[in-house]
Amino acid sequence: MKLFTLLLVITAVPGLSQFSTGFKSITRFDSSRPPVEKQGDKEHGRIIQINVWYPSQKTENRMTFRDYVGLAGLELDSSLNNDWYTLGLNRYFSWPESVKFEKKKFIDFIEREVPMNASKNAPGLVEKFPLIILVHGYAADYAFVAEKLASNGFVVMHVPVKGTLQTELDYQEKGLESQVLDYEYGLCVLKSEFPVFTNEIGVAGFSFGGQSAVAIALRNNNVKAIVSLDGGIGSAFGAQLLRAQSFYDVKKLNQPLLHLYNARDSYADLSWIKAAPQRSRWLVAMKNMEHGHFTSFGMLNSWLPGIMGKDAPDPGRGYEAVMELTGKFFTRLIKNKMPVNENFFAEVMKKNGWIKKTIEKSEFIS
What residues does each domain of the chain span? Predict the structure, then answer.
C-alpha cells in the first residue's frame, strides 16, 4: 500500500502530469559495428535495445517495475523465451548485492507488481513532442523520471549501457565513444520508425553517462539543454575523457547545464564545469544522496531502506527533487523557450518549497 500511495502522490503533483504515458521497447542491430561478446544473435551486428516513453492515449496495459527490471535480461538477446526475467533481475540487482542488501526483500518488493504510470505499447498521440535522451544504466534506472517527463509532454529515449566489444562498459575513451554511437544509432532508428518528436532535444546522463551526455550535445546541434545526474563531468576523470575525444571542442558547448551531484563525494571536482563556456550553469549539491540515489534506487529507498548500503544516508525525497528539477529545467528551456537564470531556483521553490530540504547548496554561474 505504501508504494501505491507514494506513486499516486508523485503523479498527482499539480501542473505536472498533463498526458498519459506509453512505453515501447524495440531491438535493432547496428550492422556497421561488431557484436558484443555475450550477444545472442551475432550475425547482424551490434544489438541495440531502444526504450521509448511518450505521451499517449490512455490504456489499461500498465507497466510494472518488474517489467522494467526484466528488460535488462533482453538487452543482449531479445529472442529469449525462458529465464529472461531472472537474468534481468540478477543484472539489475548486482549493485544492491555489492553493498550486501538482502535479495529476498528486493524480490518480494518487485513481485508485488504494483502498476507504474506507463502503458505498454499504447497508441501515441498525433502531435510531435520534444525529445529527452537519458544516458547510461538500465531502463529500470530511469523508469520513474522517464514516465514523469513523458507525462509532461516529452518523448524520452534510453539505450542500455554496454561495452565496445564486451558486455560491461569499458571506462575509458573508447567506452565513451561506444556509448555515444549507441545513442546516435538509436536516434536514427527513432527518426525512421517512430518520428513523433521535434528537432529540439534535451539530454541527461547519470554517472559515466554525464560525460556521454555532453559528448552527444557536442555532436548534435539540436541539443538545447543538458542535465548531469551526479555525472562524471563533476570529476577530473570524466573531464579528461571528454578532452580525449577527437570531436571535443569546448567552444561549441553553449547549452545551459544543470549539474545535480552528491554533496558527500570526496572526489567531486567542479573545475571543468565552472570553466566551460555554457551560457548558464546551475551546480546543485543534493543532501544525503549517494551516487546510486540519483537513479530509481533513490526512489526505491523509500520502500527498501538501505538499498544502497546500510551505512548510506536516507535521501528522503531527494530523488523526487531530482525528477522535479530535471523536468522544470527541460520544460523551461525546451518547451517554453525561456532562459534559465539566477531566478530559476526561486521560481521552482515558490511552488515546491519542500525541495529546499533536499539541497545542501546551490550555485549559479553565467
Answer: 2-365
